[in-house]
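Backbone-to-sequence.
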């Protein structure tokens, strides 16, 4: 077995907060914790932070190992390390299920998302155990990256010269009907506990791929959100024993009976019980010769088809919209069977991707930020409807999604989806530029409803940054796919979306290239008057629209976009730059009658004549947000390059803090104590509004990544890496979960801006439209990963008198004709050449001057 790549290793107190989500895109996840526990079972169509099913004997899901060296007594351990000290105390001792089970004394957690390895050691245990856990993550293949399974391999090594008889067991309560949301009062203890499981039935099954237990319910309504199925299976063909249920004993003696039985000989004797939540168990017995290693593989699968729509109004049941991941499989057993049949290839392709992200010359903090934040794509933040369309909350609260609607102004910032799963990104654009999200006058709701409708409700709102950013993203999806026919289909509404900025009472009603109107934005308020944040999104949209219009032969519109861009850029540079950074000029409206309806969401100013929640003279962290996307699209400088660099230096000077002990923050605290971070805004020149926009004292990682991208694009790489390093130091496993960067909820979409660090640092740019490929010229030999939507791999660049480029296509197919390295090294092939996957293609470029 080929060793897995490792990007980060955690030990000791840095294990406490780790909870790596295991699950596919749109399937929900279960978290594999840093010390080996299985928690946060968020597989039942909604977030469920803190929910772990507790079944018979008050036991939660677990894996355990039994080992007996020849001539010695047997030893049985939970396949977990020591429980974190913070979980030792509660009203009845430790409140954690399974806390009293014997554990390994030492553990190390190694990760290269989505790969997780837990190495367990104990001097009393005759074997060394390593758990390998993953769910397939294969860029360019959203279906194989969307399987509802956790694949678990337990490797046992016998370091001695004696034979060892060993066994691995797995236990999973049948919690169908329960999702941690419906609670019942325990009157004796005065606390709430989950309920809902009814009529659970576990059945032994086997086929050519797996054998194990299918978990179903005969009591839960098949139309319920919590109805579905589970599976616990193994690929082992021999040595398998099982229990469809544990003994029906009082107190916690069902666990006692299980542990006694397994500890005796590593096998499970049958038990029966008529309970709503029977615990399914498997055990696989193996023999370990001296100094040998053997593996046991398990599949945990789930299948919950009845996803509800966004809203959860009191007293109303939201419409059922379904799940894409359940459409290929009749139940969880079928999903488990499929995953087991294809395990080898799924693992090979996943490991290849992870290896490309680990074994390269990018800074460690960049690799970690880009790779670990991909976990958000597989959290309950994201899902797919049965037609394959992709949707996203902004993030996930503990028990529900955070801020519905694939919010345009939040998803503007992330760069992972388009580069790794372009079909999903295109589906988002297809919804945004359709009657589901737009009116005929170009009004685009920044939160799309579900179920989808053919008209946009009057009560919805358009966001200035969200709508302009969608035009930049449309350009990106066109560039990466090269499908001009697809762009042509969406173009009429894309043009309307930009023209909407010019309606009376709108964002740029006087059509001077500057947004002066009422601008709802990602700060959840409305800005009144010209400001750099909306300006860069607008200028970027004008440039993107100009390029798309030109490609489609809409020359008059392209000329208008160029004119507005030129005039708007000049005005912003001349009037908003204060010699240090770009600031906001507040221009109140006389009344709401001056403002086009649908431009204010109600969370901002109540009186437009004296608006609260403005940026004003503040130095904003992402004042150049639109420029980031524009540079990634090769659309050039939106504002004066020297002034942009000055603004970035100002953000670092005024907003970066090395210590937060003395920092006042009246809002949410994502940074504390002696941590380092960059504030959302500061007021170095005074003139702070009495009530600035609400988040100005906060810190949010998505905005910090946006700043880091801006710094890299401006040539300040060292400073950018410092910003990224600060973020990842905060998510170190001791203080926070490395796989969950929060903003308004867990697994926040904006944090996937971190993927943009890779093209920014490597200079990678690909256009399928003209088959052009570009990288930066490094000073010495470098190997970097690259992802171009439907294709990806690695590149090694060897600079010299003639620069040598070794391009490996790991997946997909890449059409190229022009290849550029740096500013002057370039070759043009006689015709387009399609580079196939699985090969390394070598090109030699002329010397750069």
């Amino acid at each position: 077995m080929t060793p897995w790549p490792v990007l980060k290793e955690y030990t000791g107190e840095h294990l406490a907060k780790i909870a790596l989500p295991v699950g596919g895109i749109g399937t929900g996840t279960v978290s594999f914790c840093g010390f080996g526990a299985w928690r946060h079972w968020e597989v039942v169509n909604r977030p469920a932070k803190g929910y772990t099913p507790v079944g018979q004997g008050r036991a939660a899901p677990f894996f355990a190992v039994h080992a007996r060296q020849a001539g010695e007594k047997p030893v049985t351990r939970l396949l977990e390390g020591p429980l974190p000290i913070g979980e030792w105390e509660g009203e009845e001792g430790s409140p954690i299920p399974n806390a009293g089970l014997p554990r390994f004394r030492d553990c190390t957690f190694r990760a290269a998302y989505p790969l997780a390895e837990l190495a367990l050691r104990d001097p009393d245990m005759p074997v060394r155990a390593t758990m390998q856990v993953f769910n397939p993550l294969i860029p360019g293949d959203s279906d194989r990256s969307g399987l509802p399974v956790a694949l678990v391999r337990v490797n046992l090594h016998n370091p001695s010269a004696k034979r060892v008889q060993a066994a691995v067991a797995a236990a999973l309560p049948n919690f169908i009907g329960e999702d941690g949301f419906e609670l019942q009062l325990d009157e004796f203890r005065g606390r709430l506990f989950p309920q809902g499981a009814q009529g659970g039935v576990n059945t032994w099954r086997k086929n050519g791929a797996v054998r194990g237990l299918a978990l179903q319910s005969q009591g839960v309504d098949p139309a319920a959100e919590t109805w579905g199925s589970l599976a616990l299976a193994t690929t082992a063909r021999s040595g398998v024993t099982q229990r469809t249920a544990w003994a029906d004993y009082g107190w916690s003696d069902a666990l006692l009976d299980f542990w006694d039985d397994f500890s005796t000989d590593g096998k499970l004797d049958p038990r029966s019980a008529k309970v709503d939540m029977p615990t399914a168990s498997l055990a696989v017995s193996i023999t370990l010769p001296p100094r040998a290693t053997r593996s046991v593989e398990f599949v945990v699968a789930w299948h919950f088809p009845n996803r509800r729509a966004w809203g959860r109004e009191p007293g109303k049941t939201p419409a059922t919209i379904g799940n894409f991941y359940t459409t290929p499989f009749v139940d969880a057993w079928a999903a488990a069977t499929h995953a087991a049949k294809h395990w080898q290839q799924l693992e090979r392709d996943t490991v290849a991707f992870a290896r490309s992200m680990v074994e390269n010359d990018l800074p460690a903090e960049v690799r970690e930020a880009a790779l670990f934040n991909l976990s958000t794509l597989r959290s309950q933040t994201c899902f797919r409807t049965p037609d394959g369309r992709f949707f996203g909350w902004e993030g996930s609260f503990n028990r529900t999604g955070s801020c519905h609607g694939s919010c345009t102004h939040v998803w503007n910032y992330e760069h992972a989806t388009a580069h790794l799963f372009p079909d999903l990104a295109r589906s988002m654009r297809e919804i945004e530029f359709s009657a589901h999200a737009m009116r005929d006058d170009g009004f685009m709701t920044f939160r799309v409803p579900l179920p989808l409708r053919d008209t946009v409700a009057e009560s919805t709102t358009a966001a200035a940054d969200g709508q302009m950013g969608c035009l930049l993203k449309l350009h990106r999806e066109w560039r990466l796919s090269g499908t001009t026919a697809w762009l042509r289909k969406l173009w009429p509404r894309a043009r309307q979306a930009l023209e909407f900025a010019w309606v009376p009472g709108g964002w740029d009603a006087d059509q001077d290239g500057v947004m002066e109107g009422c601008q709802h934005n990602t700060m959840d308020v409305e800005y009144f008057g010209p400001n750099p944040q909306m300006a860069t999104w607008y200028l970027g949209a004008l440039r993107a629209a100009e390029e798309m219009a030109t490609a489609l032969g809409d020359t008059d519109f392209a000329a208008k976009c160029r004119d507005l861009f030129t005039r708007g850029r000049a005005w912003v540079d001349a009037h908003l730059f204060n010699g240090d950074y770009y600031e906001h000029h507040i221009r109140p409206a006389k009344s709401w009658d001056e403002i086009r309806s649908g431009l204010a969401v109600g969370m901002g100013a109540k009186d437009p004549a004296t608006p609260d929640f403005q940026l004003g003279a503040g130095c904003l962290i992402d004042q150049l947000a639109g420029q980031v996307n524009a540079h990634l699209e090769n659309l050039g400088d939106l504002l004066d390059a020297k002034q942009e660099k000055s603004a970035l230096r100002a953000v670092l000077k005024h907003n970066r803090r090395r210590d937060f002990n003395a920092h006042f923050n009246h809002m949410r605290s994502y940074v504390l104590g002696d941590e380092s971070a960059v504030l959302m805004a500061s007021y170095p020149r005074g003139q702070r509004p009495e009530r600035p926009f609400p988040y100005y004292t906060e810190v949010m990682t998505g905005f910090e990544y946006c700043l880091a991208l801006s710094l890299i694009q401006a040539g300040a790489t060292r400073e950018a890496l410092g910003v990224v390093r600060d973020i990842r130091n905060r998510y170190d496993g001791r203080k926070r979960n490395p796989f969950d960067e929060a903003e308004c909820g867990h697994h926040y979409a904006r944090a996937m801006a971190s993927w943009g660090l890779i093209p920014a640092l490597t200079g990678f740019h690909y256009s399928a439209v003209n088959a052009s490929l570009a990288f930066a010229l490094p000073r010495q030999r470098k190997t970097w990963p690259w992802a171009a939507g439907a294709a990806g791999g690695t590149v090694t660049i060897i600079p010299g008198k003639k620069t040598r480029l070794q391009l490996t296509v790991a997946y997909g197919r890449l059409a190229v004709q022009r290849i550029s390295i740096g500013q002057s090294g370039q070759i043009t092939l006689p015709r387009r050449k399609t580079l196939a996957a699985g090969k390394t293609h070598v090109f030699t470029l002329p010397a750069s001057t």
